[in-house]
Design a protein that fits this description.
CATH superfamily of the largest domain: NAD(P)-binding Rossmann-like Domain
Distance between the termini: 25 Å
CATH architecture of the largest domain: 3-Layer(aba) Sandwich
CATH topology of the largest domain: Rossmann fold
Number of helices: 10
Number of domains: 2
Number of strands: 10
Order of helices and strands: EEHHEHEHEHEHEHEHHEHE
């Protein structure tokens, strides 16, 4: 890199790293990649953590393949809307859940094949109808214990569920064992927390490839709202209440 180059990266604020609520930071050169030409700074700031999370969940842990069917919970969310696009790039059939029609229209625009409004439709019945009673090959939980629990009977035998959250121990039930399901966790901050250099380099490669797809127009990030840094409590409240579409961004100036 040269002074003035536009770069993007992901700093988690764990281990030896600084956090992101600041105007400046210092990082190893190998952790950064050139920022895609077709995006702006808010989009660049919003993408890396969510992109790496979705990539590792679907491609690395879930081993999603062309022709498979994936259930993505909260497909209009920060991680979910990137996961929908990554799954379509891989050639999978995408079923995703949303809470309202605005979000349904949004995920359809990203390529989702089937959209389930979990407030008005029965998740279990709809998924089984869509899959001919076979269930999905992969379920991706970005919501929490209830979504994890609901997913288990909707996955075909020998299928996989990946979660970014911590399901209650009681949810690891005989349902998963009897169906020979693989249960995987993904926490993209682990390499930084544990100082795992190979994994950190892999995440840099994810940003490089993802950046190429963004430059080609195959992948995009949705920034629904930009707030100032002193509005961080507002941003956290919006996320906790589940009222976000895509990503929120905090600007330092």
């Amino acid at each position: 890199f040269q002074p003035g180059d536009k770069v993007w990266f992901c700093h988690g604020g764990l281990g030896r790293e600084q956090g992101n609520y600041a105007q400046f930071t210092v990082l190893e050169e190998s952790r950064a990649e050139f920022m895609p030409a077709r995006i702006n700074y808010p989009q660049a700031g919003a993408t890396p953590l969510a992109l790496i999370t979705a990539w590792e969940a679907l491609y690395d842990r879930g081993r999603l393949q062309e022709g498979q069917t994936v259930l993505i919970h909260a497909g209009a969310g920060g991680v979910g809307h990137l996961a929908v696009q990554l799954a379509k790039i891989r050639g999978a059939m995408v079923i995703t859940t949303v809470s309202n029609e605005e979000k349904a229209d949004f995920v359809r625009s990203l390529g989702a094949d089937a959209v389930i409004n979990y407030r008005t439709q029965a998740l279990d019945k709809t998924v089984m109808e869509l899959t001919g009673d076979k269930g999905v090959d992969l379920a991706f939980d970005t919501v929490g214990p209830e979504a994890f629990r609901q997913s288990l009977p909707l996955i075909r035998e020998y299928g996989t569920i990946v979660t970014i959250l911590d399901p209650e121990q009681s949810l690891i039930t005989s349902e998963a064992r009897n169906r020979n399901l693989s249960i995987a966790f993904t926490l993209m901050l682990t390499p930084a927390l544990k100082d795992l250099n190979d994994a950190l380099e892999h995440q840099g490669e994810i940003l490089r490839l993802g950046g190429e797809w963004m430059s080609e127009g195959r992948l995009k990030v949705e920034v629904s709202r930009i707030l100032q840094l002193n509005e961080a409590p507002v941003a956290h409240k919006l996320i906790e209440e589940g009222h976000t579409l895509g990503k929120l961004v905090l600007m330092t100036g």
